[in-house]
Predict the 3D structure of the following.
Amino acid sequence: MAQKILLNNIDVPGLATFEVYRKLGGYSAVEKTLKSLTPDEVTAEVKKSGLRGRGGAGFPTGMKWSFIDKSTDKPRYFVCNFDESEPGTFKDRYFGTLNPHQLIEGMILGSYALGAKTSYIYIRGELFYVLQIIEKAIEEAYANGFLGKNILGTDYSLDLYCQPGGGAYICGEETALIESLEGKRGNPRIKPPFPAIVGLYDCPTVVNNVETISVLPWILNNGADAYSSIGVGNSKGTKLISACGHINKPGIYEIELGLPVEEFIYSDEYCGGILNGNKLKAVVAGGSSVPILPAELILKTAKGEPRLMSYESLAEGGFETGTMMGSGGFIVMDDTTCIVKNTLTFARFYHHESCGQCSPCREGTGWMEKILQRIEDGNGTMKDIDLLFNISKHIEGNTICPLGDAAAWPVAAAIRHFRAEFEEHVKQQKCPLSR
Amino acid sequence: MQDTKKNIAFSPETLELIGKIIRRYPEGRQKSALLPILHIAQAENDGWLSSEVMDYVASLLSIQPIEVYEVATFYTMFNLKPVGKCVIEVCQTGPCWLRGSEELVKYFEQRLGIKPGQTTADGRFTLKTVECLAACGNAPVVQVGTEYHENMSVEKAGELLDQWTSENKCSHTNPYL
Ligand SMILES: Cc1cc2nc3c(=O)[nH]c(=O)nc-3n(C[C@H](O)[C@H](O)[C@H](O)COP(=O)(O)O)c2cc1C
Ligand code: SF4
């Protein structure tokens, strides 16, 4: 059996209540840490564990924490990114709803390490019902002395609050999230300065993903070495994968990093194979932003080695023949799927979600949507396909935040791997796969 | 024209809730309460934000009205025009499309006799298409107020519509209560 860190108790009834979570050993990491470790020791332990951010970029968490500016007397903030809006990604909603106390315990540990006295959980506004669940759990944690003044009689005090968004994918980008938390439009900031120096209210701030934070109690209970013994290469530990699309068992799976992709798709323990016994056509392995791969390249690398669910293996081959781990949003498409139409829905998404600050992103995402719509409707030309590719290349790398790249990559990859299908739309003057 | 003389004020209970929210932020950073308060204000104003409501919110937070307009126009969840009593939001992004969201939208269009973005003549339903709701494993997904309806199908949509019609469903309720 694969080791489980996040989902081991997920089926226990009442897990979302303090009582049940506590009975299962919950909050023991806070007890242990606040009484026996200094904040810097916590950071060192997290660094040693090899934990990487689970929000999409995979940046080493301990290293990110060590950048926080402790030299000023300004307050420091720890913020949880619960904006979860990347198409194909639904792990944080699932986990946070069922096990809010593990997230809260992680928030206490991270806040302690960073020296934050006030922390926020920023939740996308559509998920108000989840916010209600988490606020209730926070109240319980206060009532039991794990939040508030002098936690467990130590001199560490922490206040924790939830903040709703207003419906904007861009607020998942950490500087846009900070702007939004300040009550402004979610326009990403130009970096540097990084949030670790100038973040929320111009104070040193760290933003981490729900999953990253929820792993912290386990690491502090079991030690960095136990964590880093799971996984392969620089992909340590476990990862929540949100699997959706044309599979028999969509849902959230916790995998040990390094699991072969083929096993993940076909084994009954995970996705359970392709819906209706159809053939696998393509996979978007890490949320809508990462390059799509055709069946042969997602199952095996261009070198013919089995592709693994790890940061390194998924990236093997670069963007020519590889992809990225991203947020772990695993979207599976069978052979009835029109790749042009799927790409169109993504392009429409990014056009809708562009904050509008940079012209390549603001204009380019709209052009890409329009051209894809034209091709899908059977009104496209061969030149349109090149134009589309060209626009994506002009957006990539030319914007303030990575949303521009995130919009460009799926389009470029769809053309790279499925050019014939785009051409077929032009030749037949219709979608060859429309039902 | 909107009635600019309409008097807008929250109830004492709502004002107390708002006071509690404002205390979550450091002194002088009360603007951080803007998004939570706009959600509340919208729910209490039949699901949309009129300029009077936004001006009132500005006065509560001691900020300029333009600061409220800027924010209200940026975020998708805020409606700047009146909406129906029950707003039905159907996700149309890739994962929901793969599992039949287009058929679902078509069904709602037919049953309600409106297109996405429109409201029925009796003001009861507004139909909207929205982007990814983070529930792709249970696609297709429909949101109504704070409720998620997952693993949707045309049959399920029919039953829900009947139910919402008979109970005169209202999707805008104060999300904090
Ligand atoms: C457009 C865009 C959207 C993002 N959305 C999210 C999100 O919904 N959740 C998240 O945790 N990170 C998201 N990120 C990544 C964050 O900017 C940031 O890297 C992350 O929250 C850091 O946490 P981690 O190191 O724990 O992953 C997004 C980034 C971009 C550019
Ligand atoms: S890349 Fe797009 S979303 Fe990001 S800052 Fe520029 S315009 Fe805004």
Observations:
- The mean pLDDT of chain A is 97.
- The domain at 339-428 of chain A is CATH 1.20.1440.230 (de novo design (two linked rop proteins)).
- The first strand of chain A starts at residue 77 and ends at 82.
- Chain A has three domains: 18-229, 232-334, 339-428.
